[in-house]
Amino acid sequence: MGTVELPVVVGVDGSDAASDALDWAAEMAGRRGLPLRVVHASLWERYEGYIPGTAADRPAERLHSEAVLAGAAERAGRRVPALKVMTDLAADDAVTALLRAGKSAEALVVGSRGRGEFASLLLGSVGLGIAARAQCPVVVVRGRPENVRGGMNRVVVGIAERERPAEQEPAPASAAVAFALREARLRGGELEAVHAWRCAGPEDHARPGNHGGRGNHGGPGDHARPRNHGGRGDHGAHEDQGARETQGTRETHGARETHGARETQSAREAHEQRATELLDETLGGATAAGLPPVPVAHRPVEGSARKALLDASAHADLLVVGARRRQGHFGMQLGLVNHAVLHHAKCPVAVVPVS
């Protein structure tokens, strides 16, 4: 009995952004040798909300929906000759229609903006809801034209830190890595694996407080030293003592700063080594699963994950991130970093569910 070929599903609404998503999805399906399923939702958004009913109840809208689907199918066929294209006019809202289609899909592709139910897709709950709740990888086609066209020959994958060391549990990004490796191989490009790490600065050493007297800055010997209560000698002695204390304080602070700098450098090296080991471990596990070899660049980056991935997206055809499923909830935990790249990445973003 042959293996069932799951299609690549794309949502369309006739907008320019949806056309970009359609082109991207058609090429993805062509690379993978899969059919393309084009979905158009027939409920229409109004300022007062969704109006119940199907497009069949409104002939003009039905004609429009059919024209959108026919035009999309023709465009996909021109883009990738011999591609098998199926169309689906869904009498439902966009999120429900696409989530349903995503249950039996290789991947779900949407645009970053649209009209009607796809309007401002990533600015509200629609696109984020699809990315967080779909059962298959979701690709949001966004970014600069040169990145969307796919001329960078590079796929970037973000590698997350393990939540806990568990032998039986795969690294959170393993499913994302497998998806990214395959996409890089099919594109004939390289994979860049990014893991961001941070090292806290040296602990601030408590400086002696000034609570009303020079004695607070001195050692026990200050109280044992005889004091001259008569004349300028006393003033001179205090000046000499103050100079010695100032010099001693500077030397102490200098030693602390040197020690702190050494500790910081040592900590930085340890964090960077840990990041490198995490990349090696995660990528090694994915390649051991039988995927063909792909040129891979390991890139541990000091700084925030958000900035590291957004910077990497500037020279990528696709940015892949993982999203962990939440126990007892319908959907996944996208997290702040995934939210950031969905809104601001300079290339298309794939969100891959991780069990």
UniProtKB/TrEMBL annotation:
Stretches assigned to the UspA domain: 8-142, 264-353
Residue spans of biased composition, Basic and acidic residues class: 220-274
Source taxon at top rank: Bacteria
Record's compositionally biased regions (Gly residues): 210-219
Signal peptide residues on this chain, from the entry's feature table: none
Region of interest (Disordered), ranges: 201-274
Family: Belongs to the universal stress protein A family.
PANTHER family to which the protein is assigned, alphabetical: ADENINE NUCLEOTIDE ALPHA HYDROLASES-LIKE SUPERFAMILY PROTEIN
Protein name: UspA domain-containing protein
Organism: Streptomyces iranensis
